[in-house]
Design goal:
This protein is mostly helical. Helix content is 64%, strand content 0%. Helix 4 (37-46) crosses helix 5 (62-81) and helix 8 (147-156) runs antiparallel to helix 9.
Length: 187
Amino acid sequence: MIEWLSKPWPWYVAGPLIGLTVPLLLILGNKSFGISSSLRHICAACIPANIPFFKYNWRKESWNLVFVAGVLLGGIVAGTWLQNPDPISLNPKLVAELSSYGVETPQGLLPLDLFNWPALLTAKGLFLMVLGGILVGFGTRYAGGCTSGHAIMGLSTLQFPSLVATCCFMAGGFAMSNLLIPFILKL
């Protein structure tokens, strides 16, 4: 059982399981799936400031905080006891493309010469980690939610703003990976 859990699940198993969360949440209490709103709930619960954005009944959404805690706990369990011992194999075309930009082949999921503390103070590090993080946070608030909330919950409940947001997420991802990342990696 542990061996089966530690292997990547095929799309036809993982996809429907993720998709089934939508009707389950709707049936169990007309709840909306999403992760980004939990930061607002945490701030409303922990910051006693008189900020209008945080003045609402966050206790009504406390189930979302339990959900996020479960996601965090699940990640810890999976990373501690269910990790796959096999080395990560990257597509040879990706390795060749990264090498053409002077990025060494990563030992894991992230190239250490791009994503580490010393690299944070370089031009590449500022673009990729700092500016990228700010843009993701801003985009999440501007779009009224994150990719999971819009693409999973919003599309399945036929919300037109979620369709627009998901199309923009995809277009932004394509533009970033094909146009901006090659430019940034040449810095």
